[in-house]
Each structure stands twice: as C-alpha cells, then as structure tokens.
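Quick log. Single chain, no ligands specified.
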Amino acid sequence: MLPMESLLRVENLSCAYDDHLIVEGVNFAVKRGEIACLLGPSGCGKTTVLRAVAGFSPVHAGSISMAGDEVSTAQQTRVPEQRQMGMVFQDYALFPHLSVAENISFGLKHQTKAEKQARVDELLTLVRLPLDKANSYPHELSGGQQQRVALARALAPRPQLLLMDEPFSNLDTDLRTQLSLEVRDILKAQGIAAIVVTHDQQEAFAIGDKVGILADQTLQQWGTPVQLYHEPVNALVAGFVGKGELFDGTCETPTRVQTELGLLEFAEPFCQPQGQAMQLFIRPADLLPVVVDNVSEACARVLGMEFLGAATLYQLALDSGRVVEAEARMPLSIKVGDRVGVAVSVHRPIAFGIDS
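-> predicted structure:
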C-alpha cells in the first residue's frame, strides 16, 4: 500500500513501445521534499519510467498521480507543462543560441523583466555560479557549469518535483561526486522532491533518501539505501548494490548452516526448519582468510593478494574449485600459495530461500 500523503504516486505502471513491454507493474511513491533514485543497469527501463512520470512517454497500464491528481493513465495523460515538474536531461538540453540568463528564465512566461532578472540572480547564487556568467553562452561554459545552468532552469518555475535523467554522467568522477552532493543540498534546502535516474550505485546511495532497483522489467525493491544493502529481497538486488557470493547451504539449527565453506555458525538466528535448503549472500568484507594449524581445517588456497591501503583483498580458490574474494582490514601472515581456512564475520547473513 502506497502512503496517501505522497506527492507522487506510481501505481501498477507498465510502459511499452511498439507492443514491446519495457516495464511492468511498477509501484512507488515519493513524499514532499524526498529524493528518490531509480537505479539499475543500462536498458532496464529507468528513463522510460522517468519519461512517463514527466508526461513524455505514454502509459500502457496503471496510473501516475501528482499531489492527489491523476496525471497519466492508459486512457488519458496531462501534458508535461501542467504537472508542476522540472526536468534535467542527460545532455542538459540547453538552448545554444540563448545566454545563461535567457536559458534560466525560459520557462518564466508570465513574469516581468525585473522579476525574471531577480529570479535569475537568485538561482545563479543558489547553484553557485558567478553572476557575471549570466550573459555567457552554453559553449563558453564547462560541463559542470552547464549542469548548474540546467538545474537552475529546471528550478526557475518552482516545481514541486524535479526529474533528473543521469544528470552527472558526463562529468569526471571527482566533479560528479562533488556536484551530486551539492545538488542534494540545494534540493533539501529548497524542500523540492526529486527523482534521479542513475546506473551508479554509489551515487544513488549518496544522494537518495529512497532507492528503487529496476531490473528484468520490474521494480525489484524500493527502500532506503540501508535496507537495500542489508535487507535485499532477492539475490539480484544483493548483487547489484554490492559485490558478494551466493553459497548454497542447508540449515542445521536456527543459527548454523552447512555450506561449501564448512559448517558456519552465526550469532543471530536466521534459519527455519532443519534440513531446509537456502542460499547465503556473503560480501568480501565479511569473508576472512584464516591461518590454520591443522591442514584438514583448510578449505582454500590463496591465489592472489591486492593491497588496497585500508585493506587487502585476497583471491581464494575453494576446494570445490570456486574462486571467491575475501577482504582483511589487518595484515595477515599468509602468502600466495598458502592453504587457509575461511571464516565468516557477519552476525546474521543475508539469506534467501533456494528458489529466490
């Protein structure tokens, strides 16, 4: 059940092009002032959902409501300019023949020249662009500056919801991180809700209050970054939001499970009936090579080591033939070729039924 107080409600949304289904049965809600991210691999339908919310793409089934008003169904749709939404495109879509000030004020149709100038100055300050850039043209600006102008133009009409399609993908890594956090601060200060489309998990987790994982034509999970990382609903979500390995296992007790790593025991119960088949998803940070005195306790051979500064990443070949990664924060007295045991350091593992 979606919360009734939500600014945006997307219910059972399906979108298709030429009878080819892109997404199906998508449900999520965005509250006022909340920043949400749609995260998933290329081609999963993230932009299709965003364009449907904006009114640029038709709805095959389901509905989209804004501030309690239905704006899209399969039978009818409200035009984009009547939705109280702003849009920032991946390529910024600035008008090359207009100055920065003219780009920003483009959507302010019914304001006086003085009101437009005041709003432009306000927005330039808000997005941290010098006022003397107002008369510059897009080709005279850096990529980061163009991004700021695109953001200012989208914010100019004071939308209730801002839609952003891969807004930082054209920037280098350092600027991308800096600008994404600045945009989050700006939106929070202005109390504007937003949906950001991205394929970058780190970016989504840094700026999103809520994150939705899109894959296999549907929304796999919608929740906070903490929920997605620590409580994924299936192996697909777990693997997308962080590296890890699935291990088949069988419950022995509520806290013990037999796997190819041996009999693993955890501090908190997670198993159901004895003999139940399940899968454990274990991340490299929760696997640890262990020096063993008894060779019979070893279950892996060290294939390689990569020093990362704060940690060392080990490549381990299990006796089953499988290669996994394990991460150690402290120096270990082991070397390539050594036989080692493998310990699991998490208190309660991420576990799925065998059919998940």
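The chain has a mean pLDDT of 92.
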